[in-house]
Specification:
alpha+beta; 6-stranded antiparallel beta sheet
């Protein structure tokens, strides 16, 4: 926008310590401060800035600052890798002096106004004559004689202003911070110098001269550029010039129809050459081959912020502009001395628009095209837009695609000093024409492959010099011919390689074939076309960049060129910009000294690099006063992070105190800050621990500001105070520590309410000693006498009621006396009180006879959050109306549970069950007693299925089956006498086994019916365990084991187990039912059995699996809805509407494969499952081994072996894995319990068992598992033997033979040696097998180590303790989720205790207490909420 008032006169800057004069002035809003520049002397235009693709806006590299002729090198001198910019004086290289000392052409003269030198000359003149006067007037005008009142006076004098003691004391108050609007973290100038550009890189200002070439009159053109041939330019009398890299005229053979003679474009003008530099404030970086925009200024006017920056609310607050206007510069010492030690800069990313620079910085056409590509990647441009073939004529219109891009250019970073008017603008690296990757590759190629007799450095120099010559011949000498790559000079200087090709292509050269050899066509530079003008500016930019790089390269490697003849002149000069911008921002070594830290002290400080950076200072620029200034400035400008800054300052000072030479001022500042209640991050952790937070502390809760509410923190503090009252020796110290800890945590959280609580309580705390003195009683008086004395004191002095009550309250808490607490609450003595159970502990369940496994199951159901929430509302069911509920046959046909229809009776029965279960859940949540007793109706409905109930009613004349059952258990007691039916003829099939509580038993083996696998396999599986028309895959068993007695518990088990008719149970009678007389033939007489006090009160006890099936069936049935919302026409209830199926049921695929796989021999079936079985036979396996035996097994089908493959398609949130411990001894024909240890951990990954698992990994895993099973089986056979272990048999045999008389027949030394050799060979084979098994196991796990996408975490472990499957005791562990996952609860009927995870995961080898059911929950599913106790405190 034009400035209608005209430019204002610029205030002259002072000389001593002032910001040095810079090349052009940096931005101000609207009109510029400097005088307008006529178009004749400047490439810009006073009108509205043109689009970024127009060449008139290209910047220049001219600068008015003249530093030393040879820029210093800044290299790290630290052995540890840390480096700090330093001013180093170097001897200039002789070879570089010639170029650097060359006379600058006249257009660089001081009289030139191309870059507005009048401002700088006027400023310098004003600084010489009026510096002091200007400073005096400025400082007196802004001086505030009362400013010292607002600034605290530290005990150690540090030059810093703008501090507020109240604000620093109340740094924790968010409201105060919002009011003051401090700018946030900052940095001192030395840190800013590193921030502006990589300190290991150098920046140079670039001066360009127009080459003095004799121009040709006509140039022979070999080009296909038709636009070039149609152009006409003024002719000169000079003849065409030949170049060393081009072919002689007589040998040049142009391509057919491509050679024309046309006038050449005029050479670049002085203005063109100057504007080849991107911007007057652009500095070249040879390491990056790019440019950095740097600009600085001291101005009372705010910088011209970018529109997007002003619209954004995500940046820190800007510094107070009124305060900044008071001081021109922090390093400008006024009549009263410096107000601040140095600058304190604050960074604002992307705050300035390059279009608002002076002059504006706009992107070139090739940069616009690259920007469009980036926009397309960001999907702001249609994907159909052809970027590669874009016409440069259309570049001007590209900005219209995005209005935001049209209004804003490059966004530059802004660094503002919060204490004065100085600010600095910096850009990221603007890439050069040749990309850095290509640039570095070309250098590496030439350095590693120099021509014979040439060093790598010389080869690099000559290659880039040749590139500049190529550009000069094109632009100044009008050379348009193809550049032949097969010429000697080209091969010698450049060489044809991929790196050379990429470098020249970056300049616009295009490869073509010429005489079957590669050649390069130069880009068109026709001024009449947009493409030509763009290529011309692009080549000029590249020529400047390569020339500047050559000057720096020759300077750095002067020793390689001192004996060589002088090369072609370079028309570019460079001057180091480091000293200039360091002086401007106050980071020059003359302004901030370096090197006070050195040696081992510096090395120790570099280990604290994070602390130094946090304070915005570098170790190399350390001084005690500067370190203190950096700390105070950070606390002043960013009070919210006071703790972080004090932590960094304390850590640095702590290290310094351990080293010699630590200034006394720093420990004094640290002590002063401590006296102002400053604390570190470590103090916060210590405070949390002091109040009882921590896994192994009193509260067993980790402290977190986000997770721990304020009310809980206040309660923890009060509890800590109460605990201090109970400590006779350390009570006072504990109280002080608790108070300090509470204050620290309150301030760290920024909680005003907690701070008020602390303020009000710290002066009113009464100790137990004072409380006893107040009541005038000794400490050892009992509660009864204390209450008596208290009542007497109240009668004597009623005016002291509050004081007496407070004293009594303190004593009650000090003694932790519930009797005194209730007395104070009720006003009367309650007498002796039995302490209640902790309210946050889960409640146990009292036994009803031998129902320990039922108790475990009911408590397990309560820990499942979704199941509990679905059941709890059913406590409000009207049981009286259930019998009257009318359900039609159509209603009943709309739902199936467990694959079958349910009856009206089952629905009524199930709703009674869920009503009783909901009542139990209510008691578990709200009961004050340690244990709850389930109702008898609930126990009966859970243990007795509907089918059993129907059979019992139909068979009233049956035997007293309640006394016949052998399932009545007494903990760890021998079983009752069992009645066993005769065996079937099949020796592999056991008879009805004694009732097992570890797995499901078949009631009648002969009643098992074959089932159909699916439609394409009509044949049955006569020898496979079948359940509910679904093929169950048996787990791997030893050769001497029959099918598992648990049916086996192979999923999927259908819910119809509770009444589907899949099996028939024995009759169920209550104990108090009369014995029915049986019809002949009469039963044989039997012995009378005694029943224990804990005898089961129902006719028959089922195992855990059957009980779980029955409960799940009734829960799902009770939750059916018959209002037409759920259910389908097919009659199957929706899986989504069934909480049981949604939580516990997944889907698997079974695949039966014949010996020679073909389509007809492969059968597949998909179905649901609720459990996964692991057959437990031998030690030395883990949960993965056990599951692998189920998912890949061999079964017998139609008289032949078939492979059964099972894979998982869908997994439920709750995954139940059953460890089948009931095995069958074929020798004794009796079941037994396997006590083998199966290893499992807190997490299991199910990826390997999924149907979509990697087939290649599956095949490899299968091969390894097969070999592992073979090795383990062989090892087990050798160790255990068939009857006795082979090894022990050989040992005993050898011992026996050695004791025989020498004359025993057939016993000689050879025989004894053979026995010993056999032992040795057997031991070696066993060791080799075990070693191979371990190796195979490691290899197997490595196959799946990266497959962790489906994690499940262990939540419950069911334990059976007992040596046989017929009796024992059940209990289970439940993980404390989600509050404390490392803690577990042990549910042992009425007793619930807290145990560690080590007990749950312990190796059970040699113990009879083994897991039989493992429950895992999908990680992140949050389906388990273990405790769920009602919290009275939450009512408030």
């Amino acid at each position: 926008m034009d400035n209608k008032e005209g430019p204002k006169a610029r205030r002259p800057l002072p000389t001593p310590g002032a910001v040095p004069a810079q090349r052009p002035n940096t931005p101000v809003p609207g009109a510029l401060n400097s005088a307008a520049v006529t178009p004749a002397h400047f490439y810009g235009t006073p009108k509205t800035a043109p689009p970024p693709t127009r060449s008139q806006t290209i910047g220049s590299g001219f600068t008015t600052y003249v530093p030393p002729s040879d820029p210093p090198m800044y290299r790290s001198t630290s052995a540890t890798g840390f480096r700090e910019p330093e001013l180093v004086t170097e001897e200039p290289a002789e070879a570089a002096q010639t170029s650097n000392d060359a006379e600058v052409p006249s257009y660089w003269s001081e009289d030139s106004r191309s870059w507005d030198h009048s401002w700088e000359r006027e400023s310098a003149k004003a600084a010489t004559h009026n510096t002091w006067q200007t400073q005096r007037e400025t400082n007196y005008a802004d001086y505030d004689p009362m400013a010292f009142i607002n600034s605290p006076k530290p005990s150690v004098d540090v030059t810093i202003d703008g501090r507020s003691d109240y604000e620093e004391t109340h740094w924790w108050d968010p409201a105060l911070r919002d009011k003051e609007m401090r700018p946030g973290p900052g940095m001192i100038p030395t840190m800013l110098a590193e921030e502006l550009h990589d300190p290991d890189h150098s920046l140079f200002s670039v001066h360009v001269s127009n080459p003095d070439f004799k121009l040709p009159s006509i140039v022979s053109v070999a080009s296909t550029d038709t636009s070039s041939s149609s152009s006409s330019y003024p002719q000169t009398s000079s003849s065409p010039a030949r170049n060393v890299w081009s072919a002689p005229p007589q040998s040049f053979s142009p391509a057919p129809s491509t050679s024309v003679t046309a006038p050449s474009p005029p050479p670049p003008t002085d203005s063109d050459v100057r504007t080849a530099v991107p911007h007057p404030n652009a500095y070249y970086c040879p390491k990056e081959n790019g440019w950095v925009i740097l600009s600085w200024k001291s101005s009372t006017v705010s910088p011209p912020y970018a529109r997007s920056f002003k619209a954004s609310r995500h940046h820190p607050p800007l510094p107070n502009q009124e305060r900044r206007r008071r001081t021109i510069s922090c390093i400008d010492h006024g009549p009263f001395g410096a107000a601040n030690k140095t600058h304190h800069f604050h960074k604002y990313e992307k705050a300035l628009d390059s279009h608002k620079l002076t002059p504006p910085l706009r992107m070139e056409e090739w940069e616009v095209a690259e920007s469009v590509k980036q926009k397309r990647r960001a999907q702001t441009i249609d994907e159909g837009f052809d970027i590669e073939n874009i016409n440069p004529k259309d570049l001007d219109s590209l900005d219209n695609i995005d209005t935001e891009a049209e209004q804003e250019g490059r966004l530059l970073d802004l660094y503002i000093c919060c204490q004065c008017s100085v600010y600095c603008v910096a850009s990221s690296v603007i890439p050069g024409i040749i990309p850095r990757k290509c640039f570095d590759g070309f250098i590496r190629d030439k350095r590693n492959n120099p021509p014979p007799g040439t060093t790598g450095e010389v080869a690099v120099y000559e290659a880039f010099e040749t590139i500049t010559r190529i550009i000069e011949n094109k632009l100044w000498k009008g050379e348009h011919r193809l550049l032949r790559t097969d010429r000697k000079q080209f091969q010698l200087k450049l060489g044809w390689s991929p790196n050379t090709k990429r470098t020249l292509e970056a300049l616009g050269f295009v490869e073509e074939a010429l005489e079957n050899q590669p050649a390069l066509r130069p880009p068109s530079t026709d001024l009449t076309s947009t493409i030509g003008r763009t290529n011309r500016r692009r080549l000029l930019r590249a020529w400047v960049e390569v020339s500047a790089w050559l000057v720096d390269f020759k300077r750095l490697n002067a020793s390689h060129f001192k004996d060589l003849p002088e090369k072609k002149p370079l028309w570019v000069k460079i001057d180091s910009a480091r000293e200039m911008y360091q002086t401007a921002i106050g980071a020059h070594p003359d302004q901030i000294t370096r090197g006070e830290l050195s040696g081992h002290v510096l090395e120790a400080m570099q280990l604290r690099a994070h602390e130094w950076k946090n304070l915005g200072i570098t170790p190399m620029s350390y001084s005690s006063e500067l370190l203190a200034f950096a700390y105070y400035a950070q606390v002043r400008c960013d009070p919210a992070r006071t703790v972080d800054y004090f932590t960094s300052f304390a850590n640095i000072v702590s290290v310094m105190q351990d080293l010699p030479g630590c200034p006394q001022s720093l420990p004094e500042i640290l002590a002063t800050e401590r006296s102002r209640d400053r604390f570190t991050l470590t103090d916060i952790q210590s405070a949390a621990w002091a109040l009882g937070f921590g896994d192994n502390n009193d509260l067993s809760v980790e402290y977190s500001e986000t997770d721990v509410p304020e009310e809980f923190l206040e309660s923890a503090w009060k509890d800590c105070i109460k605990r201090s009252w109970r400590e006779s020796e350390r009570g006072a110290e504990m109280m002080r520590t608790a108070n300090d800890a509470f204050r620290i945590l309150a301030e760290a959280r920024g909680s005003e309410s907690l701070r008020r609580v602390w303020e009000s309580a710290k002066s009113k705390v009464m100790t137990p000693e004072k409380a006893y003195d107040t009541l005038e009683v000794p400490k050892d008086v009992d509660d009864f006498m204390l209450i008596t004395v208290y009542n007497m004191r109240m009668d004597e002095s009623p005016s002291q009621f509050e004081k007496m009550k407070e004293a009594m309250t303190i004593i009650a808490e000090a003694r932790d006396s519930q009797r005194l607490r209730q007395f104070l609450e009720m006003g009367r003595d309650p007498g002796e009180i039995v302490e209640p159970t902790r309210p946050d502990l889960p409640r146990g369940l009292n036994q009803l006879g031998n129902t320990c496994y039922l108790n475990s199951l009911l408590q397990y159901f309560y820990t499942i959050k979704d199941l509990r929430e679905a059941v709890s509302p059913m406590s409000k069911l009207d049981l009286k109306s259930l019998e009257d509920e009318k359900l039609t046959d159509d209603d009943l046909k709309r739902h199936r549970v467990g694959g079958r229809l349910v009856t009206r009776r089952e629905i009524v029965r199930s709703k009674k069950f869920i009503n009783q279960l909901a009542e139990l859940f209510f008691n578990l949540e709200f009961a004050d007693t340690a244990a709850v007793t389930p109702s008898l109706d609930l126990a009966k409905l859970a243990l007795v299925t509907s089918r059993d109930e129907e059979e019992d009613e139909a068979d009233k004349g049956g035997t007293d089956s309640s006394n016949d059952t052998d399932a009545t258990l007494v903990d760890d007691a021998p079983p009752r006498a069992a009645v066993t039916d005769s065996l079937t003829e099949d020796p592999r099939s056991p008879t009805l086994s004694p009732n097992s509580v570890l797995g499901k038993r078949s009631r009648d083996v002969e009643l098992r019916q074959p089932s159909v696998m699916d439609l394409d396999s009509p044949a049955a599986f006569p020898s496979s365990p079948i359940h509910d028309d679904f093929l169950s895959t048996p787990s791997r068993m030893s050769s001497d084991s029959p099918p598992p007695l648990m049916s086996p518990k192979s999923p999927p088990r259908m819910l119809e187990a509770s009444g589907s008719g899949s099996s028939s149970h024995m009759d169920v009678d209550m104990i108090d039912a009369p014995l029915a007389k049986l019809q002949p033939p009469p039963l044989p007489p039997r012995k009378t059995t005694q029943t224990s006090d804990s005898v089961m009160m129902f006719g028959k006890q089922h195992d855990v699996a059957e009980c779980m099936d029955n409960c799940m069936f009734q829960i799902e049935t009770a939750l059916l809805k018959f209002n037409g919302v759920s259910g389908t026409d097919s009659g199957e209830s929706s899986d989504k509407s069934s909480v049981v199926k949604r939580l516990f049921y997944g889907k698997l695929r079974q695949r039966l494969v014949g010996p020679q796989p073909s389509r007809s021999s492969v059968h597949e079936k998909e179905d649901l499952f609720s459990h996964l079985p692991v057959n437990v036979t031998n030690d030395g396996v883990d949960i993965y081994d056990g599951l692998s035996g189920y998912f890949d097994d061999v079964v017998e089908f139609n008289g032949e072996k078939r492979r059964m493959e099972v894979s998982l398609m869908e997994l439920p949130p709750v995954l139940q894995i059953q460890l089948q411990r009931v095995q069958f001894n074929r020798e004794t024909l009796q079941p037994y319990k396997s006590q083998a240890y199966v290893k499992f951990g807190e997490t299991i990954y199910m990826d390997r068992f999924m149907d979509n698992a990697d087939p290649e990994r599956k095949a490899r895993s299968k091969a390894i598992q097969t070999r592992l099973n073979t090795v383990r089986e062989r090892s087990r056979l050798l160790v255990e033997g068939k009857d006795v272990p082979f090894l022990s048999a050989l040992e005993h045999s050898a011992a026996f033979v050695s004791k025989l008389p020498p004359d025993t027949d057939n016993v000689d030394d050879e025989f004894c040696s053979a026995l010993n050799d056999e032992q040795r060979l057997l031991k070696e084979e066993i060791d080799e097998l075990r070693s191979e098994a371990d190796s195979l196991k490691d290899e197997l796990e490595s196959v799946w180590k990266d497959n962790t996408a489906i994690p499940y975490e262990l939540t419950s472990v069911f334990i059976h303790r007992g040596s046989t499957p017929s009796f024992g005791h059940y209990f289970f562990y439940s993980r404390h989720l989600p509050e404390n996952p490392d803690s577990w609860f042990k549910y042992n009927d009425s007793d619930v205790t807290v145990v560690s995870k080590d007990e749950v995961l312990a190796d059970t080898t040699g113990s009879t207490a083994n897991p039989y059911l493992l429950v895992f929950a999908r990680k992140g599913s949050e389906v388990v909420d273990t405790v769920n106790r009602f919290n009275v405190n939450m009512l408030d």
